[in-house]
Design goal:
Length: 410
């Protein structure tokens, strides 16, 4: 409009620059406007605007063309054309104004809807905060109750634990006292048993043995002086029975308490007893002593001999061995006794379990004897591979009560 008016009045081509620039931009602006107002509410307005723009452009092109061909006189003679061009421009302005007003109304509506949405969101957020606060309070109450219950349970558990520990301590003290009493009692029983065995063996040897020997001599004298064959036969039978009784009494005395143990010490007694059992059982016996001295505590000597006695008896009864090796040694602190056979062996764990149920007391007796003098007994055995029994005892006599028992009452 500006370029057309300036050219119409002056006829100068320079005034047509806005016209040419506007004509080149008009298409892009129109496509952008259609894109922005792509709505059914603007369809009628856009159609009217397109018609008004084409109408206005027609008048502009007509005025410019006539001004070029016929000059200013045509413009003076056709002022009505200028009025029509102005009216077309007013129509364009009016349509644009209506579109602007309509868009402003839409904008106000959108703002109002946005405000309503914001209010709704604010209410929702406030409600959410209230609900969240209620939930947090409820969770706090639940957690507080749970922690209170847990603290109460922990306190009760601590009290129960303390009571249980106190009871355990009391029972432990009672068990320790009972174990100590049982240890002393076992030591006293073994001591009394050894002393009683020694007394019985001495009585058998000294009194009954001597009496039987005297009877034997008298019967021999009687046999020499007997006149009849019947008397001689009767005396011979008596002598045979008496010889058997003397042998039984001697064996009984030896098994109760071999005199060699008191007279020559453990080494000689162990070697003699091994040879005696080997002759009876029919297996080969081997005895070896390393760095050995029979100067050992009496309780250790008795313990070693009783363990050897029990082990050799068990080998004779159960092992079916053909060879038994006994080794004794001594160092600065320990006395070591080893008994090994090549017999059938046995399940040590099973034997211990049977001993706990009372089926056999041999293993427990050996272990108890070693324990009472502060020693350790170990047994290694596999089926068909023989058995090794090893006893380690301290050299110092820490349990002399075996030799001279004391009695505990109460």
């Amino acid at each position: 409009e500006t370029g057309q008016r300036g050219y119409a009045l002056t006829g100068k081509e320079s005034f047509l620059a806005p016209y040419h620039n506007g004509s080149s931009e008009l298409g892009k602006d129109w496509r952008k406007l259609v894109e922005l107002l792509n709505d059914d509410d603007y369809a009628t307005e856009l159609d009217g605007l397109a018609a008004a723009i084409q109408w206005k452009l027609g008048y502009v092109e007509l005025i410019i063309a006539k001004r070029k061909l016929e000059g200013l006189d045509w413009m003076a003679a056709n002022l009505a054309v200028l009025d029509e061009s102005k009216r077309a421009m007013d129509i364009v302005r009016s349509i644009v104004q209506r579109i602007r007003e309509q868009e402003e109304a839409h904008l106000v509506k959108r703002i109002r809807e946005s405000e309503e949405d914001m209010e709704y969101l604010f209410v929702i957020a406030l409600f959410s905060k209230v609900v969240m606060g209620v939930i947090l309070v409820a969770l706090f109450v639940l957690i507080w109750r749970e922690m209170t219950c847990r603290y109460a349970a922990q306190a009760a558990l601590a009290v129960a634990h303390a009571e249980l520990e106190e009871r355990i301590r009391e029972r432990t003290v009672q068990l320790s006292d009972a174990n100590a009493r049982l240890t002393v009692l076992s030591r006293n029983v073994l001591g009394v048993q050894e002393n009683e065995r020694q007394r019985i063996a001495r009585d058998l040897h000294d009194e009954i043995g001597q009496a039987l020997t005297a009877i034997n001599l008298n019967l021999r004298n009687l046999q020499d002086d007997a006149g009849s064959a019947a008397s001689a036969s009767l005396v011979s039978d008596c002598l045979s029975l008496l010889k058997s009784v003397i042998g039984s009494v001697r064996n009984l005395a030896i098994n109760l308490r071999p005199s060699l143990l008191d007279e020559l010490g453990f080494g000689a007694a162990a070697k003699w007893y091994l040879q005696r059992q080997a002759e009876r059982a029919g297996w080969r016996g081997s005895f070896a002593a390393t760095n050995w001295s029979d100067e050992m505590p009496e309780d250790a000597a008795i313990t070693c001999f009783r363990i050897l006695q029990e082990a050799l008896n068990n080998i004779a009864k159960h092992a079916a061995a053909t060879a038994v090796d006994v080794r004794i040694s001594r160092d600065a602190s320990d006395i070591v006794l080893e008994i090994q056979d090549n017999g059938c062996g046995f399940d040590v764990a099973r034997a211990r379990q049977d001993a706990r149920f009372g089926h056999s007391v041999g293993l427990l007796a050996m272990e108890e004897r070693a324990h009472l003098v502060g020693g350790v007994l170990t047994i290694a055995s596999n089926v068909s591979e023989g058995t090794m029994i090893k006893v380690s005892l301290p050299c110092v006599a820490t349990h002399a009560a075996l030799a001279q028992p004391s009695f505990v009452t109460g």
